[in-house]
Amino acid sequence: MRKVIVVDGTFLKNKYKGVLLVATAVDGNSNLYLITFEIANSENDCSWEWFFMQLKMVIADEEGLSFVSDRHRSITKSIGNIYPLAKHGIWIHHLISNVITYNKDRGVAGMVAKASKAYRVAEFEKEFARINNISPAIGSYLEEVNVRKWARRHFLGYRYDINTNAAAESINAALRSPREYPLILLLESIREMMTRWFYESRELSAKQKYPFNC
Predict the structure, then answer these.
(1) Tell me: the pLDDT tens digits for 167-208?
(2) Pairing status of strand 66-69 against strand 4-11
(3) Of 120, 117, 98, the residue nearest 163 (C-alpha)
(4) Phi, psi dihedral angles at 32 (to 5 degrees)
(5) Strand order in the sheet with 19-26
């Protein structure tokens, strides 16, 4: 899998409520790979810290590893404490939502999206200058958030094309109905889903007639 892990939390809809925390990656075929999940009472320092401690048993801390998430303070704090070598970026669509709040003109939001995807310094600076010309307030906000967190060109690690929480949202969508189940049935549904995915991937792999050359 790519060394980019998307983490997110979603509310449960059963009798006892709570949240489902997930860590998702993308494999070599651009398919979703659910690494781990946790059911917690809420998104707080304790639940996220325990989550990342369990994740670290499977995914070691290293400089080539990156996390992408929203701006939840508990996520940022826990990654900093448990994965000090890894890099942490944020989803661009959260910033764009705030930008639209600042300025109803969606053209500015498009500029922010384009700046976030830029590969070259000149390309980024051109778009960022346009943003500042239209709204210095938005420019100041984006700098305050930390350009290294959301702009691909300035991100200190490698996040490839992962700019949103699409991976986590897709997992949440797949579990839309099970999120209403009692906890044991919810866990069983996740286990069944993952088992089915792995089985289908193995069957597809077994149909390959020729070995891959690295």
Answers:
(1) 667 777 777 788 888 888 888 988 898 899 889 888 888 888
(2) parallel
(3) 117
(4) -70, 145
(5) 32-40, 19-26, 4-11, 66-69, 87-90
pTM: 0.84
Tens of pLDDT, residues 79-99: 999 999 999 999 888 788 878
Fold for domain 1-91+164-214?
Nucleotidyltransferase; domain 5 (3.30.420)
Which residues of the chain does CATH 3.30.420 include? 1-91+164-214
Reply yes or no on whether the pLDDT at 147 is more than 80. yes
Q: 21-44, pLDDT tens digit by residue?
A: 999 888 777 778 888 888 899 999
Q: How far apart are CA 26 and CA 5, in angstroms?
A: 8
9 CA to centre of own chain: 10
The distance of Cα 30 from the centroid of its chain, to the nearest Å, equals 15
